[in-house]
Design brief:
heterodimer; A: about 110 residues; six-stranded mixed sheet; about 50% strand; B: about 110 residues; seven-stranded mixed sheet; four-stranded antiparallel sheet
């Protein structure tokens, strides 16, 4: 079945450092890919998405490129802020006729001033 | 445009009891999905409803059931609660099944 693997956290950075959170997936077909962010005590918010190979999703300085050849969708940001501290989830939409979305386990990001 | 709302915010139940959680979808959205999120884990898909019909189900037992109403709001019912059912239950709406989902704040269920 479909699966998403994210790098283990927590990721701890100083403000203005560069961020990369790795995400790889296994799926039949060509699913849409998403990054969601969850702030403490809240539900998930869509951060960005990509619907086909080589698409780049971007939002709030975050970017991720749908790489079919490496089945990856790594999240990047050039300069993180304390307010970016949260848990980030990589997810894929259903594939191969399935409507079941699949989420990774999440990666906690802690940014220090 | 109103977002996804869920009620109640928190709930404490005893093992063996039954619980109903409620979700109002974002206006214009006809699809609702329910997820269980255990502490430190990603959301696990329970099921999805599209225009009042179940449209997909994850690996959860039949004591997890749901409904979607004509206004696209939804309920999640859990019978015979077990301690492992303690989790954050998230509802998400979307306009079609595979598009991006908009999440509510969740209901924190504690089973004692």
């Amino acid at each position: 079945g479909d699966s998403v693997t994210q790098m283990e956290g927590p990721v701890t950075l100083s403000e203005e450092a560069c961020l990369t959170i790795n995400c790889t997936y296994t799926a039949t077909g060509y699913p849409s890919l998403f990054w969601y962010v969850q702030y403490p005590g809240e539900g998930l918010q869509l951060l960005l998405k990509a619907t086909k190979a080589d698409d780049k999703g971007s939002n709030k300085g975050f970017e991720a490129t749908y790489r079919k050849e490496t089945t990856s969708f790594h999240l990047e940001k050039g300069s993180v802020q304390v307010s970016d501290s949260a848990v980030y989830f990589c997810a894929l939409g259903g594939s191969g006729g399935s409507y079941i979305p699949t989420f990774g386990r999440g990666t906690s990001l802690i940014v220090h001033p | 445009e109103t977002g996804v709302t869920q009620s109640p915010t928190h709930l404490i139940k005893t093992r063996g009891q039954q619980v109903t959680l409620r979700c109002s979808s974002q206006s214009g959205h006809n699809t609702v999905s329910w997820y269980q999120q255990a502490l430190g884990q990603g959301p696990q898909f329970i099921f999805q409803y599209y225009r009042e019909e179940e449209n997909g189900r994850g690996n959860f037992p039949p004591r997890f059931s749901g409904l979607q109403f004509p206004n696209y709001s939804s309920e999640l019912n859990v019978n015979a609660l077990e301690l492992d059912d303690s989790a954050l239950y998230l509802c998400a709406s979307s306009d079609v099944g595979l598009s991006e989902q908009y999440f509510g704040p969740g209901t924190r269920l504690t089973v004692t």
